[in-house]
Every structure is written in structure tokens, then in C-alpha cells.
Amino acid sequence: MNETRRDRDAEGRARNARPRDGLGRPLPYGSPGVERQPEGVLRSPPETLREAQRLLAAGMPFHAHEVFEDAWKSGPEGERALWRGLAQLAVGLTHAARGNTAGGARLLRRGAAAITPYTEDRPHGLAVTHLTSWARELADRVEEGRAVDAAEEAPRLLG
Questions:
Q1: Which residues contact 37 (CB under 8 A, 6 or more apart)?
Q2: What is the pLDDT of residues 3-27, one digit of tens each?
Q3: How many angstroms separate the Cα of 37 from the Cα of each of 51, 90, 125, 135?
Q4: Which of 45, 77, 123, 129 has a CA that sits 20 to 30 A from residue 33's CA?
Q5: Where do the H-state alpha helices sit in the chain?
């Protein structure tokens, strides 16, 4: 019988321990990778936005997605769609930078649609109009087959 062992965290849950690059792609065991975002971190909205902006500017949208996901899962019900939409924008940028044009464009548009209802309220100072325009324009360019550098394309979250 071929028994496959799975990586486990301290609580025994299955967790892939392979190192990852800045776009979240798994690297071979033993390779240097970037530090992974801890999961389940409770942050205030300003802390979430600061950390996500730092990661986006560093060309690490996959990791920014993880930060937004924590806010989406732990935030108040009325903001979950906002944080989920921001996570979709970050993972859309991730897919676009990895060369997945269809998935990247689809997620960028889905994220833009999810945050559009917040345009007037601009919760936490989010630049919602800028973000939706950025996402739609980037989706168009991605579908045209243009290469995407995640750090160069990082959006401005506040403003």
C-alpha cells in the first residue's frame, strides 16, 4: 500500500508546509520561500488595510489575499462582502501575475462588482472608485495577453 503523509500544523490539521514564492506558488521542499501569512489573525480594519497594502506593494498579492480573508471571516456581517471583494481583487492580481488570464480577469471583475456597493460610503477610507476602475482596466489588459508584474500593478487601497 502506498501511504502518503500529509503536512500537519500544531493542532493536527492538514497544512501544506512547502515554501511558497511571493505569488503563493509552491516551491520544492527545502527551497527558500517568502514567509507565509499567519491564518486567523484578528486585525482592526486600519491594520488590515496597512498590512494588505504593504504586501501588495511588495508584489505579494496572494499574501494580501490571506489578510483580506481573515477580515472577511472575522469582520461584521455588513462588511463581509467588502472584505471578500478585496480578497478577490488580490487573488485576481495573483492569477494575472501567474499568467492565468481567464481566472485573473474573472476574479478582478468579480471583486470590482463586490465592492461597487461601497462606493459612496467608502468604508475605512477605501478608494473604492479607484479600485473598481483599476480592476476593470487591469482585467481588460490581462485579456489582451499583456504580462502583469504584481508589484508594478499594485493598487492604492486608500484615498
A1: 55, 63, 66, 67
A2: 456 666 566 655 567 888 888 888 8
A3: 10, 14, 24, 24
A4: 45
A5: 45-57, 61-74, 80-98, 101-115, 128-143
Rounded CA separation 36/7 (Å): 15
Per the DSSP assignment, residues forming a β-bridge with 158 are 126
Rg of the chain over CA atoms, in angstroms?
A: 16
Partners of 14 in beta bridges: 8
* pLDDT one-digit tens code per residue, 66-125: 999 999 999 899 999 999 999 999 999 999 999 999 999 999 999 999 999 999 999 999
Return the C-alpha cell found at 87: 480578497
Contact assessment for residue 106 and residue 148, using Cβ atoms and an 8 Å cutoff: no
**Cα–Cα distance, 154 to 27 (Å, whole number):** 23
Rounded to whole angstroms, the Cα distance separating 135 from 38 reads 26
